[in-house]
């Protein structure tokens, strides 16, 4: 059964890598993902060869490969100035060192013998510590990056999608953490019971295959988020060059543009469009929105959308459904529309219409 899973892993990894590399607009993120998938294919092939040559699996940790690859994939998606450099390959050094030494020592994956004192005990101990440190370091860093990214979106976009929020990567972090904790307890159970059991090894490759399917499905469609722009949050306005008159002028430009052009009716309206329209740098607009107007870009734009919705909800001549009104006013999904509307008014759109439509 395991051999079938391993061959499926090889074929799926290679197929997904080729698809990613053939994307029309290939980004650095795509190159990292493709390289990551190719390495996964090699890891699955290595395990197959272990059984063919030795008859048992050699001690290996594909997660010394997974951890840094995941970290750099996340970083490449959300950091506009990220560039892939040869020095980044150094992060794969622990994986290759332990992989090579495992073959030199011929170390098997037998957990009940993991803490047995012999001539390779130091190697196994270092292997275990390296895995724990790698998991904690890279995945905590990835989580922090994703969290900061989601906070920064409200200064850049008026509507969110899964491609922007990278919710699927949060999902991977969660299930990966669950996997690591469960693997730890399974390993402890095997060591305590002193049974020769390969379950954790099977468990590892089943989980990896699941991750590969997730990466294949979402990674192919994921695009770089800030491909042509710099995130406003990088420009701290603690050292502002704007005086009060300049701030008021920018404020007037923003309000005038919104009243005349109604750009918020466009569900794809973002900070780039606003900056280009009024010819003011994004970080200055962000500063004025947050310190003078008192709202981030997301809340400011959606407050206009909600006001537009309120007008249509109370207009007897409008025969559209509530959902249609939301889309007409710039919301890009029903869930976003209902969530924002209730947050700003304290009522659902349906409740508001029944209360105020005379």
Structure description:
The structure is a single chain. The chain is mainly α. It folds into 2 domains: 2-221, Rhopdopsin 7-helix transmembrane proteins (Up-down Bundle); 232-356, Arc Repressor Mutant, subunit A. It contains 15 helices and no strands.
CATH architecture heading of the largest domain: Up-down Bundle
- Nearest-integer average pLDDT: 85
Domain module tally:
2
CATH class type of the largest domain: Mainly Alpha
Task: Using the coordinates shown, work out and report the CATH topology of the largest domain.
Answer: Rhopdopsin 7-helix transmembrane proteins
**Rg to the nearest angstrom?**
26 Å
Gist of the model:
By secondary structure, this protein is mainly alpha-helical. It is 68% helix and 0% strand.
Helices, strands, pairings?
Elements: H1 2-21, H2 28-53, H3 63-78, H4 93-105, H5 121-152, H6 162-165, H7 167-193, H8 199-221, H9 244-261, H10 271-278, H11 282-293, H12 297-313, H13 322-328, H14 334-345, H15 349-356
Which properties best describe this structure?
358 residues, Rhopdopsin 7-helix transmembrane proteins, 2 domains, mainly alpha
């Amino acid at each position: 059964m395991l051999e079938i899973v391993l061959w499926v892993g090889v074929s799926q990894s290679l197929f997904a890598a080729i698809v990613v590399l053939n994307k029309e607009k290939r980004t650095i993120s795509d190159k990292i993902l493709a390289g990551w998938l190719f390495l996964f294919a090699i890891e699955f092939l290595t395990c197959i060869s272990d059984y063919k040559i030795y008859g048992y699996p050699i001690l290996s940790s594909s997660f010394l490969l997974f951890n840094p690859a995941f970290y750099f994939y996340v970083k490449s998606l959300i950091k506009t100035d990220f560039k892939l450099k040869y020095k980044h390959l150094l992060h794969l050094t622990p994986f290759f060192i332990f992989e090579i030494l495992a073959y030199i020592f011929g170390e098997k994956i037998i957990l009940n013998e993991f803490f047995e004192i012999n001539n390779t005990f130091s190697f196994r101990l270092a292997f275990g510590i390296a895995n724990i440190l790698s998991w904690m370091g890279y995945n905590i860093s990835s989580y922090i990056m994703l969290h900061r990214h989601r906070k920064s979106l409200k200064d850049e976009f008026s509507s969110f999608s899964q491609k922007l929020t990278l919710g699927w990567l949060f999902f991977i972090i969660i299930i990966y953490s669950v996997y690591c904790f469960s693997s730890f307890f399974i390993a402890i159970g095997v060591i305590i019971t002193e049974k020769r059991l390969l379950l954790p090894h099977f468990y590892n490759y089943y989980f990896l295959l699941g991750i590969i399917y997730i990466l294949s499905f979402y990674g192919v469609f994921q695009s770089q988020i800030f491909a042509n722009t710099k995130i406003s949050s990088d420009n701290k306005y603690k050292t502002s060059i704007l005086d009060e008159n300049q701030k008021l002028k920018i404020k007037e430009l923003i309000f005038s543009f919104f009243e005349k052009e109604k750009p918020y009716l466009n569900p794809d309206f973002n900070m780039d469009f606003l900056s280009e329209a009024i010819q003011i740098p994004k970080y200055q607009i962000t500063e004025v929105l947050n310190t003078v107007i008192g709202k981030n870009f997301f809340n400011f734009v959606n407050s206009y959308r909600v006001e537009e919705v309120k007008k249509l909800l109370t207009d007897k001549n409008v025969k559209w459904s509530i959902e249609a009104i939301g889309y007409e006013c710039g919301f890009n999904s029903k869930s976003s529309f209902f969530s924002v509307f209730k947050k700003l008014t304290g009522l659902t759109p349906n409740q508001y219409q029944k209360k105020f439509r005379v």
